[in-house]
Design a protein that fits this description.
This protein has three helices and no strands. It is mostly helical. It is elongated.
């Protein structure tokens, strides 16, 4: 029987999984901020540092780690 070779090494797959977790964390940080009453607009909660700066940075960082995990030669 022929032995199958993996295209990527285990280290690459670990980096890809870590990157996916970071992306999910970024999207979780971005969520929320809604109000039960549509007449109330909570600007400070919606436009907070976490949602405007930190969460998009985490998403981009996660995509970068995934891309690095795919492109890295092991």
């Amino acid at each position: 029987m022929e032995e199958k070779k993996m295209v990527l090494k285990n280290k690459n797959y670990i980096l890809i999984v870590i990157g996916c977790i970071v992306v999910l964390l970024g999207f979780l940080l971005m969520s929320g901020g809604g109000s039960e009453n549509p007449e109330v607009f909570n600007e400070s909660e919606l436009f907070s540092f976490r949602r405007i700066t930190l969460a998009p940075f985490m998403v981009l960082l996660g995509y970068g780690v995934v891309l690095y995990g795919i492109m890295k030669k092991a």
